[in-house]
Write a structure and sequence with these properties.
The structure is a homodimer of 297-residue chains.
Chain A (H helix, E strand, L loop, with lengths): L17 E4 L9 H5 L5 H10 L1 E4 L5 H18 L7 E3 L6 E5 L7 H6 L1 H11 L3 E9 L9 E4 L1 H9 L6 E7 L10 E3 L6 E4 L9 H4 L10 H11 L11 E5 L4 E3 L10 E8 L27
Antiparallel strand pairs in A: 1-9, 2-10, 3-4, 4-5, 5-12, 6-11, 7-10, 7-12, 8-11
């Protein structure tokens, strides 16, 4: 007999959308966790208030060059590949993302780097593990938009992540400008939970990694959040690291400029928040999208 | 027997792209034309250098409200319509553009307004007529990108516009921000002519008004222009007017924000530059895209 966890964040179950208050903390770390660094108390306060934090100059030029070279090599291997980890742009063959990169260097080392994992432990408290990793290409000339979403909504419904206790890190490998499709975040939106409309079909992820059709927030809720939160577009040079809470509403426009906007994306989840059965009732998505095996307990 | 004009700007005829120098002036007006206003000598110089000019506060709030109300009414009429003047977003039913609006008020009055037509006469010299007009919706949440293009390249190949002697005016009906899909222009690109690759199929316009597939500049040429020119994103409040030369390379990213970016678009051509047979050898596009009848001579 399966024991289902209580669903604190139901979504895709009602006919109309609803905005609920977040019931989880944003900062979980004990005073000792928080004091450990690398984030200063002021940075932690900003992160808690806005649901994101951009830190410039975290990686130096040599580190960025090494990650970029590894990305180019991975992209060259991926071009002809038809493995599920390689996701292509909607309506095209250009590679959009390569998932599950953190098993091999240099990404394994990056995921273990205290500049990322240490910051994750500071906000999540205690031990963490990599829930998901990927390279996002956002290529020049043809990078398509990512519609608004809360990562947590998907991870909860489709992967069975029980609580909001995860944090994402985007390591910028290109300078981010207002015009090459940078991430847009709604500051403070992490304190609200937008319940989406409609159920989730099985195997939805095969399409949704290219273009989301379920678990999409409705326009009224987005307009409400926009009016309340405004928008932030944290642009900055390559080597910057953008971290954001799992429930921060974010998205990005397309990129027709010649300047790609590549990044490495690493998501940490608390070991106290390991995945259970998906709350949407579908089969769990595969390991390359959401780590289930090998979670330290 | 048809007499063909000499093709000074061949395009879509070769297997590889090429960048040619513009052989036409940018400012055609005589000293008397230029002195007439509304543009100052400094504004004319900026326009000549960059290939565009943003003027804020040209229309007041009342005028913007009247044009917006007319646009809403036109949009309501267009929703169920299947007339060719109403063009929809690629992959959707949302209205992207409504063409040929300048036969009826308030757009007829706008097209005759000396703040637009007077500025057109200043730069083009002598009499002008409306080559094309349209409302662009760029709706919130779903406005798609417009890929890079020189309007002149299309007007020359598909409509038979002989020379670069036309100017476009975009009247902003919404505040333009960096994030709601504003127009991006490559300053100085109007002095270069990118010959595109590939021929044009007949009736191409039915698809190209939604998404361009022929007459698209190649990536090397765009990267070359980008490196040479940089990019300008002239954002500003509703009521601003952006004017740009017919050969200025421009495009825009998508718009997933809740804020629409609507504008009225009026193109003036010199009566001395009236259309001839399309230089691409296809049949002329219909009147609603490119005025042929009723051109004052």
């Amino acid at each position: 007999m399966r024991i289902r966890e209580v669903d604190l964040y139901p979504s895709r179950m009602a006919e109309s959308a609803e905005i609920a208050r977040r019931t989880d903390p944003v900062l979980y770390g004990s005073p000792a966790d928080r004091a450990r660094g690398p984030l200063s108390p002021a940075e932690l306060a900003l992160y808690a208030r806005d649901g994101f934090l951009l830190r410039e100059g975290v990686l130096d030029a040599r580190e960025v060059a090494a990650l970029t070279a590894a990305l180019d090599a991975a992209l060259a291997r991926a071009r002809g590949a038809t493995v599920p980890e390689v996701v292509r742009e909607p309506g095209g063959d250009a590679v959009r993302s390569i998932f599950a990169v953190h098993d091999a260097d240099p990404w394994r080392a990056l995921a273990q780097d205290p500049r990322l994992s240490g910051a994750a432990r500071q906000v999540l408290g205690g031990e963490v593990y990599v829930h998901q990793s990927r390279i996002n290409l956002k290529p020049g000339f043809e990078g398509k938009d990512f519609y608004w979403h809360s990562d947590f909504e998907t991870w909860h419904v489709e992967d069975g992540m029980p609580r909001m206790r995860a944090v994402s890190f985007s390591v910028l490998l290109d300078d981010n400008h207002p015009y090459n499709g940078p991430l847009m975040l709604l500051p403070g939106s992490h304190k609200h939970y937008v319940r989406c409309v409609g159920a989730t079909p099985d195997e939805h992820f095969k399409a949704s990694l290219r273009r989301q059709e379920y678990g999409v927030p409705d326009r009224d809720s987005l307009a409400w959040l926009w009016a309340r939160c405004g928008v932030a577009i944290p642009t900055g040079p390559a080597g910057s690291v953008l971290m954001f809470d799992c429930n921060t509403m974010h998205g990005s426009n397309s990129n027709i400029t010649p300047l790609s906007r590549r990044n490495v994306f690493v998501v940490y989840n608390s070991v106290a928040n390991a995945l259970v059965e998906p709350f949407g009732g579908t089969r769990p998505r595969p390991e390359f999208v959401a780590t289930r095996e090998g979670v330290p307990r």
